[in-house]
Amino acid sequence: MGSNIELLHGDIVYSESGDSLTVRENAILAVEDGKVRDIYAPDALPEDLRPLPVTDYGRSLIIPAFTDMHVHAPQYEERGIRMDLLLSDWLNQCTFPEEAKFADPDYARLVYRQFAQDLVRQGTLHAVVFATLHAGATDILMDLLEEQGIDAFVGKVNMDIHSPDFLCETAEESLRGTEAWLERHSGTESRVRPILTPRFAPTCSFPLLQGLGALAKKYHTGVQTHLVESKWEAAESVSMYPECGSDAGIYERAGLLGEGPSIFAHVIFPTAEDLRIMKKYGSFAVHCPDATTNIIAGIAPVAAEQAEGIRVALGSDVGAGHSLAVYRQAARAVQLSKLKEFYEPAESGTISFADAFYMATKEGGSLFGKTGSFEKGYDFDALVITGQEDAGVPLDAAGRLERFCYTGDDRDIAARYMRGKKM
Ligand code: GUN
Ligand code: FE
Q: Which residues surround ligand 1 with Cβ inside 6 Å?
């Protein structure tokens, strides 16, 4: 059977590393069986491609789709509300009551459908998602994400202590429910996969965490949680589990690391021990600039973490963040790095836009295989971005991409492709 080849013309921009953008203006990208075959100048197309039709996007940008490495689907209705609170009050006053509503499958379907549609609208085609402790609603979310045709890791949340009665399980219930849920989702070909999701150390007993560690081993499952996200959380975690030595040490001791990917949201106040453990397991730190400025306070030491060899990707963290636009998180990551440099010069270093875009695409995408770049053999999971130029004032492709991340929105996303297929 012959292969399926499609040619797309436009201004192509992607990352190979965080050092610089790769820019191919006025170029043709050949997609073969859903993957990038190569990129050519229009007058240098190889013989076999010359007879094929070209989808011409003119001077529009063709870029890799975004990856949101940390987002809470059940907090979609909280976005942009009560952002004047700080973490603990925000959880207790807003988030726990909102998440409790997901006991009702109809409410779950109503909100999760709009969440899933908005993800795609914003150009996020890969996501790592928290649901709630309700396994039934988590299944509904997984079905809706699958229907949208995107890649995702989704977690049924575990929490058994220091939680309100209306949003709490016993460790036994939580483990039983989690195992039944893992059973339902294991051995499938689905692109929407389960990931263990202890909420964070303050709401998880050690027997619960150890039980999850055993499930990680049995089902070869990864883990996502929140790590040293605030001074309050960091102090609380270590005082609850002093024998573990650090927040990351809690998950290591419980046997949750090393069976699959480990994804730690925020990592704003890591100790040397946290960083050592994350490096050992190849964990991701997820920088969530909007959440940081809304309800957390404290700026992740992104440049220092990268210098330690930690993989740092970006997350919207809706509803602590107020928008699903990962491209805006790229812009804000640059902005926050400047503030950090100014206020905490001893522990920082500004980051470039090229680095921020890399975190939003290739670094996060690496969790899902070969996606997030247009190097040869990568999945063609892509967006077409129009506009960004004022009439009569030309702007080069790199400038238009940067401006899109700062000032653009979903109306500028003219097309989305997943594995080479237009969505
Ligand atoms: N820590 C524990 N739960 C949460 C949550 O839902 N959002 C954020 N940002 N931090 C948390
Ligand atoms: Fe979060």
A: 72, 87, 91, 95, 199-200, 226, 229, 291, 317, 320
Contact 317, 291 (CB under 8 A): yes
Nearest CA owner, ligand 1 atom 9: 320
pLDDT in tens, 56-65: 999 999 999 9
In ligand 1, which atom is closest to the CA atom of 320?
Answer: 9
* pLDDT tens column, 186-232: 989 899 999 999 999 999 999 999 999 999 999 999 999 999 999 98
How sure is the predictor about 164, in pLDDT bands with cuts at 50, 70 and 90? Answer: very high
**Mean residue pLDDT across the chain:** 96
Query: How far apart are the CA of 37 and the centre of ligand 2, in A?
Result: 37
User: Distance, CA 102 to ligand 2 centroid (Å)?
Assistant: 17
Query: Ligand 1, closest atom to CA 99?
Result: 6
CATH of domain 5-64+371-422: 2.30.40.10
- The dotted CATH code for 66-368 is 3.20.20.140
User: Is the pLDDT assigned to residue 1 strictly greater than 70?
Assistant: no
Cα of 258 vs its chain's centroid, Å: 20
List the domain boundaries for the chain. 5-64+371-422, 66-368
Write the CB contacts of 197 (distance below 8 Å, at least 6 apart in sequence): 130, 131, 155, 156, 157, 158, 223, 224, 225
Q: What SS3 class is residue 416?
A: strand
Average pLDDT over every residue of 13-38: 98
Distances in Å between the Cα of 130 and the Cα atoms of 84, 133, 139, 153, 155 are 23, 9, 12, 9, 5
Alpha-carbon Rg for the chain, nearest whole angstrom, is: 21
| Best of 77, 229, 264 for a ligand 1 pocket test (most atoms within 8 Å of beta carbon) | 229
DSSP three-state, residue 301: coil
Strand duo 197-198 + 192-194: pairing? unpaired
